[in-house]
Amino acid sequence: MSKKIKNGSNGDLDKKKPLKKKRMTKKDLENVIQDLKNKELRLRAEFDNFRKRKETEISSILKYEGKSFILDFLSILDTINRGIDSYKDKDTRNALVLIQKDFLKKMEERQITEFGEKGDTFDPDLHEALTTTSDKKKKDDEIVEVYEVGVKYKDLIIKHAKVVVNKK
Fold first, then answer.
1. What are the DSSP calls for 16-63, one per residue?
2. Predicted model pTM
3. Domain boundary residue among 39, 63, 87?
4. pLDDT of 39-95, one tens digit each?
5. Same-domain pairing of 59 and 96
6. At 11, is the pLDDT very low, low, confident or very high (cuts 50, 70, 90)?
7. For strand 143-148 and strand 161-166, is the pairing parallel, antiparallel, or unpaired?
8. Distance between CA atoms of 93 and 80, rounded to whole angstroms?
9. Which of 6, 14, 24, 126, by CA, is between 20 and 30 Å from 103?
10. What are the φ and ψ backbone dihedral angles of 89, each rounded to 5 degrees?
């Protein structure tokens, strides 16, 4: 059986000699200094990259600050457009046309423009092809019908135009 010591430690382990610290040479100190300089340089570069990234994000947010607001109101314009197409009463249609013109004028003042018209060439970056048709009288990739116009805010596509494209 083993003897237990009062403080709970093993007597052999307590008798180890203390380690002597190695004295640092000039070369060791120079290496430590160089490592610290490298760390500082990397941290400065990392911080600079972070700062530039944040500046870009903030300028993008400010440049396109009205995007979500515009998206909310585009559904109203779509409803007005459908109303113009569906109402048979001339007075109601004329009222909706006036509202539509005013709405489009206000959008244009804020650099919000519509795109996607019949006869344009299909561009997948601007248009969403809902379906295709085959008309030999029309050019290949020509837009035959527009279901919904697209919308740009400055140079940002907010809503793609939904179209029917001619394929030969």
1. PPPPPPPPPPHHHHHHHHHHHHHHHHHHHHHHHHHHHHHHHHHHHHHH
2. 0.55
3. 63
4. 999 999 999 999 999 888 887 776 667 777 787 788 888 888 888 988 888 999 999
5. no
6. low
7. antiparallel
8. 9
9. 126
10. -70, 120
140 shares a domain with 89: yes
Q: What residue spans of the chain are helical by DSSP H?
A: 26-63, 67-86, 90-109
Same-domain status, 48 and 131: no
Q: What is the DSSP letter of 9?
A: -
Cβ neighbour number for residue 160 with a 10 Å cutoff: 19
CB atoms inside a 10 Å sphere around CB 87: 14
Exposure string for 58-81, b = 16+ CB within 10 A, e = fewer: eeeeeeeeeeeebeeebeebeebe
Q: Which of 86, 77, 157 is nearest to 123 (CA)?
A: 157
Spell out the residues 6+ positions from residue 138 whose beta carbon is closer than 8 angstroms to its own.
144, 166
Is 167 within 8 Å of 133 (Cβ atoms)? yes
Q: Flag whether 20 is in a domain.
A: no
47 vs 41: CA distance, rounded Å: 10
